[in-house]
Amino acid sequence: MTNHWIDFANSDVVLVMGSNAAENHPISFKWVTKAMEKGGMLISVDPRFTKTSAKADIYARLRSGTDIPFLGGMIKYILDNDLIDKFYVQNYTNASFLINKDFKFEDGLFSGYNEEKRSYDKATWAYQKDANGVIMKDPSMQDPNCVYQLLKKHYSRYDIDKVVEVTGTTKDELLKVYKTYTSTSGPAKSGTILYAMGWTQHTVGTQNIRTMSMIQTLLGNMGVAGGGVNALRGESNVQGSTDYGLLFHILPGYLKFPLGSQATLADFLKATTPTTAEPQSLNWWSNTPKYMVSLLKAFYGEAATKENDFGYGWLPKGDVGANYSWLNLFDQMSKGKFTGFFAWGMNPACSSANAGKVRKALGELDWLVNVNLFPNETGQFWKGPGMDPSKIKTAVFMLPCAASVEKEGSVSNSGRWAQWRYKAANPPGEAMPDAEIIEGLVHRVKELYKKEGGAFPAPILSLAWDYEENGHLSVRKIAREINGYYTQDVPGADGAVFKKGSQLANFVGLKDDGTTACGNWLYSGSYPEAGNMMMRRDNNDASGIGLYSNWSWCWPLNRRIIYNRASVDLDGNPRRPELPVIKWDGAKWVGDIADNAAPPMSDKEKGKLPFIMTSEGVAKLFGPGLAEGPFPEHYEPLECPVENNAFSSQRINPTVKLFNEKGEGEGKDVYLTCDPRYPFVCSTYRVVEHWQTGLMTRWNKQLVELAPQNFVEMSKELAALKGIKNGEMVTIKSPRGQIDAVAMVTSRFKPFTVKGQTVHQVGTTWHFGWCAPVNGGDTANLLTPTVGDANTMIPESKAFMVNIERKG
Amino acid sequence: MAYAKLFDSSKCIACRGCQKACKNWNQDPAEKTTNRGTHQNPPDLSHQTRTVVRFKEQEGGDLGIIWTFFKDSCRHCIEPACKMIADGTDEQAVVITDTGAVIYNERTAKVEGMNCGYNIPKQEKDGAPYVKCTLCFDRITNGLQPACVTTCPTGALEFGKREDIVKLALQRVEEAKKRYPDAHISSDYKEVNYIQVFHYKEDMFEMYADREKQQKIKMASRRDLLNPKKAAGMISKLLG
After folding, report:
1. In the predicted structure, residue B204 carries a pLDDT above the cut 70
2. pLDDT band at residue A808, thresholds of 50, 70 and 90?
3. Is any Cβ of chain A less than 8 angstroms from the Cβ of B145?
4. pLDDT at A652 over 80
């Protein structure tokens, strides 16, 4: 999130789209309810009328997978009716920037497309620059090649009738949403977006979010109280996992993962450190070398020296163009490319798209280590439905681990607040905290390398691993390393000396010369000399806008609302004085921790632009970073109920990776669109009573009592068509698999009219699995396709095609 | 001190945290349930389930659908019919405490002709103890809020001094009216310590309580307040 949970209460309009917040994030409604008590409006946009919709002032349904037309229509509405926040757009975005004259968009494709590679050469998706490398601009925003004009041209195609035809939303509902949400334009009001997997789990997931980011930027809603783009994360610490480099393409603190083409540290830093010629751009990522070198010092300690590139050569490197995401990983596993696999706190046999393929792939392994609280469908795949244990070679080890309350550590919530948690009870039996399991592995692997040598022992033997305190692994010691410390005495200002081993105050002190070590620059400041800031529990709010700055700690630098410099005018005065985030008092910023201490922009020499993480210093309405193009464009889901995309002749996202194979059946990678055998759109989702694949809830009898069995929700019209009665068992089939579920016939689903055709949509959950409870059913992921977003590879679980029949 | 609890349907998101918290605190075992084509589960109150969130889905209203949730549990009546009836058998079988909580005990099981217009008390079988909400008597007399209220994320459940809760309820009605013109306080609010605010036309009292039966019990018991034994006999006769 750019903002945080409590900040929702500051919103004048809360849009919940791509999320059922009331169901899956009940605590969010503590704050949404407060916003509504103050007169704020709640809009719910969802294919199905949900618990969120039940509380909303406005509800609009849309066919799953048509968010970009819905939002693209809103962009057109904003531009046609001149509803942009002019000051904001002119000063804080790239609307006036001129784009390369060869940049083109024709029939669903941007310039530079390579059909064979299913990817773009982005050379023309670039700014026009002068001789000094400064971007050329037209402040009047009239130049036909300026971003504003290109934006206008692109979204002129998203006229309301076409949007209605594609989304299945009624014109009346659509206009109500547009009118209400755009009322937040300008400084007087703020609107927020709460989204979740309903936006990410599409082949155009990243672009869904980008479209909304553009709307927030056009309306001046970024960086302000009650605004922002807010992802409601699906797990209590998934924000933390991402910050610490859980994903394959990043290192801790969102530093880029090194590639094989970057042989030396200098190569890596050259490729990953952006530069800018924009006079007022801070370009924060220019600090990359300091963060990278300090990270290497944390990894390798004394062994990391300037002479050996601080151990950069020991880091694993990715192949250029390779993608090591989840879907590819299991695709490779299914082809026998892995010998071993740690399933750590994960249950891919239920959570992965096309779970049937994953279950089979696990049988290709020599060994599988399942680290979890409970036995699950992954660890027990070999005795699952359709498996013959006598034919499976995989050796499976179960390592029971401690639950969150049985260990100490930090959890970072969706609002980026890192909060320290204490151990409440000992883990049962042989269960151990994850960190201790990892430590045990590291010591044993190091021992083996010491004894046996091996092909490349240096990275393992050089790894600094000194987390013991009083004979035990100390997570506090790890937290101190994450914050960063001086590796030698370093002279400070006024003759003071930062002693070797003392904690850094924050990342401003990090160096690229090896004198500092830091496990994650983003969290530098969380554990300075003064102590562990994540332990703070002061519930006084000096800000008056709910920042609670002394409760826990928030990255970066305890900044509660990021891009907050966009909430002030050029002189640093809050544009909305009654909800001030920061204010320049003439010498310094007061309020929240400002996005950099530099003076406001009217100081032409020292003043800085608000969007410090982009090299331009401004928000990007034209965003060349994504795979599909600089402006979001509608493409149909890979499996969809329409033959043609109404917006172009590109039916699907031209840049997604396809895993097709021949034939249908359990676990196969088959995609069928407009196939009469699979006529209904299906989405997967969650309920409040269960969590993810249900591992922590399916064993809890009181929760199973509340939600005992998987179900499939469908309209009364579809039930009548298929002769299905409420409460009876039905079979849902996709080209990849089938599950049984209880039919829940409801008015909350209604058929859509799409291009004059009736389209039915159904929905089911992915909480259940064959292990428990009895008769609970199995995961909806046996139905979902192996296909992912072109940027993130998040699978398209929110729109695919199925059939549904009474169980006979 | 007399306390009361408030349920405000306009703020309920049916997370059912209250239902789970109730089971946790009372250590009530889970029931074996199945999905019957609705999110509501267990189907009704039982000797193992003291509170249940009822779901109701109707077509109509500004959004096309009115989907409402109601946390059903003991109303802790100020003049409880169950008490009137029980007194006919044993005056210690149903106890009204000064907190406003109506409390059952092992002697309640022996009450003849036990009845409730809201259909709240449940027993496993004839002769078994009656089970229902205690208003978390053990918590509220130790400075805590009822378990259900503690867990409610949105303010749909509130607990406090009865006079404050009545005030809050009437204030909530006015607030809710800005959005929902039909908002109203439950028609029985003067008679109970579990007060409700509904943001839509129907009154859950009408929907989920047997109004007629409730009236009969009330009338009979009031008339015969001074002679509980007679009241019990009369009520049983009235109700067949």
Report:
1. no
2. confident
3. no
4. yes
Strand A800-806 and strand A58-60: the pairing is: unpaired
Domain A5-231 indexed as CATH 3.40.228.10: yes
Q: What CATH class is the domain A680-806?
A: mainly beta
pLDDT tens, residue by residue, B70-113: 999 999 999 999 999 999 999 999 999 999 999 999 999 999 88
B19:A59 CB<8 A: no
Interchain pair B34, A27: CB under 8 A: no
Read off the pTM.
0.96
Touching check for B222 and chain A: CB below 8 Å? no
Q: Is B38 on the interface with A (CB under 8 A)?
A: yes
CATH 3.40.50.740 location in chain A: 326-413+417-450
What are the residue ranges of CATH 2.40.40.20 in chain A?
A: 680-806
Instruction: State whether residue B60 sits within 8 Å of chain A by CB.
Output: no
List chain B domain ranges.
3-76+138-208, 81-132+210-239
Taking the alpha carbons at both ends of chain B, their separation in whole angstroms is 37
Which residues 6+ apart lie within 8 Å of A344 measured at CB? A371, A434
Other CB atoms closer than 10 Å to residue B3's CB: what's the count? 23
Contact A394, A361 (CB under 8 A): no
Q: Do B41 and A708 touch (CB under 8 A)?
A: yes
- State whether the Cα torsion A123-A126-A129-A133 is positive or negative: negative
Whether the Cβ atoms of residue A49 and residue A748 lie closer than 8 Å to each other: yes
Q: How many helices (H) and strands (E) does chain B have?
A: 8, 8
The SS3 of residue A798 is coil
CATH 1.20.1560.10 fits A326-413+417-450, yes or no: no
Check residue B211 and give its pLDDT: 57
For A411-458, how does the pLDDT look when each residue is reduced to its tens digit (9 = 90+)? 999 999 999 999 999 999 999 999 999 999 999 999 999 999 989 999
> Could you tell me if A368 and A362 are in contact, meaning their C-beta atoms sit under 8 angstroms apart?
yes
Span A236-291, pLDDT tens digits: 999 999 999 999 999 999 999 999 999 999 999 999 999 999 999 999 999 999 99
Q: Which CATH code of 3.40.50.300, 3.30.1490.20, 1.10.238.10, 3.30.70.20 fits the domain covering B81-132+210-239?
A: 3.30.70.20
CATH number of the structural domain B3-76+138-208 = 3.30.70.20
Q: What is this model's ipTM?
A: 0.95
Question: How high is the pLDDT of residue B216?
Answer: 66
User: Residue A133 in 3-state DSSP?
Assistant: coil
- Name the band, by pLDDT with cuts 50, 70 and 90, for residue B223: low
B30 — contact with chain A (CB < 8 Å)?
yes
Q: Do B30 and A702 touch (CB under 8 A)?
A: yes
Question: Which residues 6+ apart lie within 8 Å of A508 measured at CB?
Answer: none
